Amino acid sequence: MGKMRELIYCQECGVKLNEIVTDEGVNRKICEFCKKIAYENPVPATAAILFNERGELLLVKRNVEPKAGEWCLPGGFNEIGETPEECCLRELKEETGLTGSIERIIGSVPGVNPFYRSVLVTGYSIGNFSGSISAGDDSDEAGFFELSNLPEIAFKSHRELLKTYMDKELYSTDKGMLKAMGAYVITSGDHINVAESACEAGATIIQYRDKAASQSEKLTKAKLIRKITRNTETLFIVNDDIDIALISGADGVHLGQDDISVEEARKIVPGNFIIGKSTHSLEQALAAEKDGADYIGIGPVFKTPTKEDYIPIGVETVKKVIHNVKIPFVCIGGLNYDNIQGLLTLGAINFAMVREFASDTKNSVKRINNMIAGN
Ligand code: 3NM
Fold this sequence. Notes:
Layout: E1 18-21, E2 27-31, E3 36-37, E4 43-49, E5 57-62, E6 71-72, E7 75-77, H1 84-96, E8 99-113, E9 117-130, E10 139-145, H2 156-167, H3 170-173, H4 175-179, E11 183-186, H5 191-200, E12 205-208, H6 215-229, E13 235-239, H7 242-248, E14 252-255, H8 262-266, E15 274-279, H9 282-291, E16 295-298, H10 314-324, E17 329-332, H11 337-346, E18 351-353, H12 361-372
Parallel strand pairs: 4-9, 11-12, 11-18, 12-13, 13-14, 14-15, 15-16, 16-17, 17-18
Antiparallel strand pairs: 1-2, 2-3, 4-7, 5-6, 5-10, 8-9
The protein binds ligand 3NM.
Ligand 3NM is lined by residues 186, 278, 280, 297, 299-300, 304, 306-307, 310, 332-335, 353-355.
């Protein structure tokens, strides 16, 4: 990064600026001709953090200085009259061809810029993106990169925003991680034992699903599973019961079609609380996405005794979901080692199971995760 250029002349009339010390004791520059202090404030800019369904990060290759030819987050300077959020989405569209919506603000980071002196970059995470990549405006190329294989990111401010995003665990407990749920373990039988083994095997998600227990029994078990999963990488989700999820301190709740809506549930949960929704058709999947679900279950893909009244939706519906739904999805219903292979080939990467994880849980979780990883 070049040295910060000092302001020497008045930007309005071109007269050389004088240095003064204000009544408050602050060093300022003044244009004696315009009778105005030349405030030296950072230029507002924004940057977009966007992950695709595989957990890869969107970057653009700049074609303008500074840092032409280098990769950075999509973004740019605020235009007069637009909000930072509008700026971020406009720059995203101009530089990558993609449209999306603001998920959350990540933070504002100061930066030094050889042309614009000082900038203040506000980062936003972007969700619900659509469109196909086509680089434009200040970028020559745009593409998704695996986190383990990122090119050097040109701007320190962008690197800091990305770090904040990761450190706040927005990535690990938010949609980025959910995109790569892998083996999603739904407990049955000896729920605590299954949860313990699943956690030990490194399952990404454990869902406590207990149709037989009373509410008070469920709460006791949910608290135990919370204890098991606390301070681990494993997320804990409670099926159906939002009250038990909240009281036990779970990371989220999984709602069925007959439960309260995602929109209503959202009103009473903490900001980063995960809300999943069971869906049984493309229409329901799209409705759940619109309703603000963080992820959906889609199934039953195949016939299953665990939910025997349901008609299987089949592989064709999974294909439609892959092509039409932007939020993370997990396949469910009648899955086993054999039929998962075909779903993996289609591009599905998350698999929720009851029976396969009911016994020999540890090995089953490892086996499924290895399959997903392509081993
Ligand atoms: N939900 P198994 S299918 C709990 O389609 C559940 O929403 C489904 O059990 C859905 O892995 C299902 O034993 C049962 O087939 C999954």
